Amino acid sequence: MSKYTIKITLLSDTTFGRGDGVAGLVDQEVEHDRYGFPYLRGRTLKGLLSEECDNLVAVLSDENQRQHWQKISNELFGVPGSTLGTQGKIHLGDACLPSDLRTEIAAQIDSEEKKKQNDKKYKPKLTSTDILESLTTIRRQTAIDTETGISADHSLRSARVILRELIFESNILFETELDENSDDDQDMLALLTVGTLALRRIGSGRNRGKGHVKCSLYDSAQEITKNMNYIQRFGRNK
Amino acid sequence: MIENRHNSNRNIIRRIIVRGNLVLDTPTCLGSGDADNLIDLPLLRDTISNHALLTGSSVAGALRNYLREHNKGYQLKDYRHELVTKLFGDLFAYHNEVNITDEKEKIKIKSQDNQSLLIIDDSISNSTIQTELRDSVKIDSVTRTAADKAKYDLELLQAGTEFPLCFELLIEKGSDEPSLLKGLAIALQGLEPVEGLEQGEISLGIKKHRGFGRCHVNEWQVWQFDLTDHQQRLDWLKFEHWHSGLFPDYPTHTSIAKALNVSLGEKDDQREFCKIDATFTLASPLLIRSGQASNDKAPDVVHLKSRRNGELKPVLSGTSLAGVLRHRAEKIVNTLTECKKPLVTKRIIKEIFGFVPDKKYQSEIEDIDQNNEKAKASRLIVHESVIENTTDLVQNRIAIDRFTGGTLHGALFNEQPIFPKKDTHLKLNLELRNPEDYEIGLLLLLLKDLWTGDLPVGGTSSIGRGRLQGKDATITLRIKQEKRKLIIEQSENNQSLIIREDDPESTDNTAEYLQYFLDELNKELKK
């Protein structure tokens, strides 16, 4: 099994949407775990990565090239309609904040909750809401009615955003060990590399400034997204 | 043949990245919408630093609006399949599609929706927030004193604040690239300085119809990536998108149209307006009270000042001038109708200056607005003007006890208005969008009152402050596909006015042309 890490640095405030809101507080809540840590689902991340890869493959001008890279993409991410044969080689974990931070705070919250269970009057010093509020803020926006020039009726929305400059990490596992001498395996890694580089916007409102990110791919030793060999490998003329 | 994993590829064949540095020319309020703050309208701050935040959605809204106005005219709605919609994405609902009841048809229409092809990044100001506080109060037009519970304050970003902007236009296979590029060029051109001025036509933030939020972009940088080309694709993948602002060793352009290689003609511009750019001088001291007292010893009342290039300059604020014009317009219409048509007055004034239904006079509103009118923004744009070459002098005043005839104990106060010098001048810019002929007539009467010093601006007018004196005015009219530029000049006080056409070859009688608008006003009021 080959293991890689994808690092997502938020360059602007970001909403990893959860699809619902909190009545009376926000219309759009971010995905967060029970300790209040926001995260991006691995399933979403895979979708984003595969979309970027497919976008890059689709514009290759040479027909043979495109077929080849489409095949690589299919092998890497799988084809819809799961059978063993069409399954993707890649497994992505949720993109989370650093795990040492999370375990430490989770332990504190757990102990506070225990105290609360033993003593009903005890006020916990740290709750998941505190964590969520320390890592996020709320942003509001309205639309302007073009005819009257005032804010349009029923258009005020509020969305929670994750503070910029936080770094999320997701683990990527390949089902099989990637072979350094196998062309196909190296192509797969090259495609993943360019896909990671192309992934620049994540989450809600990504055409309007939210969710601008910088992604980089690491194996155990070094950053692959800096390795020109992989980047140039993609779509080269054979 | 290998099947595509799915056929929803966007087929983005080109990416165009545009960058520029936005500079604010007047104070700007990019509000956060936060209700629990000491200030009525606090600024939106970046989440992790004390820098101001200009959201991508704000910029997008401003650009979208400008492009639509340019292509179609003011105060119109968006429709499906228009250039604006293609470039900036489909709306949640179009007003002509709201009433469709057939679910199948609704879904069919909705499935054509597209997201925006233009990505606009959030922008964080280059420097920490430098604020300016502006207090305002509504003046009751009848008593000419401050209205009850109508005071508010704004937190404004100082002029000179800079925001790095970044746009990315995606061109999909089969899309109409030339028109998209043209749309982008027109929209961004709204940020470029207008000929002869420092500011662009687009304003940001709130109260932009009162002169706040004017801004401009001086330089653009453009990158074009053809993704079907191996080398250019590599260049895009390696593009250092995480650096904000302009790149130091990359060519810059002053015109976005040239940078994108599109030609823009003036004939596509569908906006109708009447613009008045006038130069005035002060005929008397002027005092617009400012809310913020200075830190060191200061008089009780000081004239309003605002920072320009780091220097405190006395200003005639747009809110102040607009208020004065509104009340005078009301007076003019009332006079011409002999106060017999209060509803006509209300309608005309509201139509020009905008209004908010006032809950205090709910019963009255129900009388007037049979059709339950909603609030409306002003169609008259009044800009803030800097007053050049003035002196500050402090005047001490006392109140007289009416009973004894002596000075009232404890009623000594001092004021610091600005006083005119030899070459004191200020430029007033008014713009009426979608003007009716009679509204232009009303505007001309207002200009006349300002010109002759009959209409004082600012406070303490009853002791003779706040009178202006006109020097020259340029009236630019673009109505009914016709564009005319008229000039009014007065060389000396008490000399007669010279009214002429900007075009020296024109033989039209300019004065008669202006008289036409006044006649239209009289006709409208006699109806």
From TrEMBL, chain A:
Q: Transmembrane stretches, by residue range?
A: none
A Pfam family found in this protein is RAMPs
Q: Which residues form the CRISPR type III-associated protein domain?
A: 7-214
Keyword Transport on entry = no
Annotated keywords: Antiviral defense
- In the UniProt record, the signal sequence range is none
* InterPro entries with a match to the protein in the record: CRISPR_Csm3_endoribonuclease, RAMP_III_fam
In terms of domain of life, where is this protein from? Bacteria
Which GO BP annotation is one of this protein's? defense response to virus
Claim: Flavoprotein is one of the keywords in the record: no
Q: Protein name, please?
A: RAMP superfamily protein
What is the originating organism of this protein?
Anabaena sphaerica FACHB-251
Automatic annotation (TrEMBL), chain B:
Q: Does the keyword Transmembrane helix apply?
A: no
Give the GO terms filed under biological process for this record: defense response to virus
Q: Which residues form the CRISPR type III-associated protein domain?
A: 23-215, 279-468
Matches recorded under InterPro entries: CRISPR_Csm3_endoribonuclease (IPR052216), RAMP_III_fam (IPR005537)
Q: Do you know which CDD domains this protein is assigned to?
A: RAMP_I_III
Q: Which UniProt keywords apply?
A: Antiviral defense
The molecule here is called CRISPR type III-associated protein domain-containing protein
Native source species: Anabaena sphaerica FACHB-251
